[in-house]
Amino acid sequence: MPSNADPAGPATDATRELFTLDHVSLRFGERLVLDDVHEHLHTRVATAIAGPSGSGKSTMLRLLNRLEEPTDGRVLFHGVDVRELDVLELRRRAVLVPQRAVALTDGVRSEVRLAAPELSDDDVDQLLARVALRADAFVGRDPRSLSGGELQRLCLARALAVGPEVLLLDEPTSALDPRSADAVDEVIRSLVADGLSVVLVSHDVRRAAGVSQDVLVLHAGRVTARGAAATLDLEHELMHPSDDGHEHDDDDPRAHGPAHEPHAHDPLERDDDRIDDRWEGP
How many Cα atoms within 13 Å fall on the side-chain side of residue 102? Predict the structure, then answer.
């Protein structure tokens, strides 16, 4: 069964840096969706991208595996410009799981095997176990009969089947009831504990902080705050973005360069046009 890439030896700056957004801007026509974003995303952690509606969260996520292309700047994967990589290989290494879980076959095992038909039944059953689905209870069912939470976890198993280095999760729990969302969150925590890297978009700040070690806050296409989920005052940052970017302790392992130069906050809400990511307050 495919296994997640695991760099040998102790973590270094090179192995910790998974993605770099190198002064990335992106426009849709006249609309500036991302504005000079310069950030590093690291391996073996869950990083949440949070922010109000239209802030550019989902657009940033799609840049990571070239579902969008920057207007300016570069996106690097392990230090290599993603435009220099084979796009299909990139998308196998960085798999995006969309917001709405959709079954594409009429069998649980065939669903997991969609992108990895060589997997044995035992391989599939192990993947189901990784997402807390018992094979004996699910393999005989039609995926379309599953609950929303079960189907979302099956889609996670389908993504894991290709042995990705990182999962890109777009609002993974937004359509779920609280109990189902808790089950998906627990799966995300266990995958990160096993060494997988996760980047997720969420409009629910409390839930995002509960599964993530690192949080980026976006406003009007700019990263206005970043820090450890356990210490960052997310509710304050989301409601009262700073005017001059963000800062971090020099010894913070998530350090990523100096704070941005001062910039004016755009008072107009910018709609992402890709996803309904209304802000869900506490």
Answer: 5
Gap between the Cα atoms of 54 and 87, Å rounded: 27
Q: How many whole angstroms separate alpha carbon 155 and alpha carbon 103?
A: 8
How many C-beta atoms surround the C-beta of residue 103 within 10 A?
18
Distance CA 185, CA 116 (A): 25
CATH code given to domain 14-239: 3.40.50.300
DSSP state of 280: B
Paired with 214 in beta bridges are 47, 228
17 sits in which H/E element: strand 17-28
> Residue 278 has which token pair?
């209304």
pLDDT tens digits for 64-101? 999 999 999 999 999 999 999 999 999 999 999 998 89
Bridge partners, 170 (sequence order):
201
The span from the CA of 55 to the CA of 273, in Å, is 11
Instruction: Please name the residue ranges forming H helices in 94-204.
Output: 108-112, 121-130, 135-138, 148-160, 178-193
Sign of the C-alpha dihedral computed for residues 261, 19, 42 and 161 taken in this order: positive
**DSSP result, 182-196:** HHHHHHHHHHHHTT-
Question: Encoding tokens for residue 42?
Answer: 């690291």
Domains in the chain: boundaries? 14-239
The predicted-structure confidence for 153-202, as pLDDT tens digits, reads as follows 999 999 999 999 999 999 999 889 999 999 999 999 999 999 999 999 98
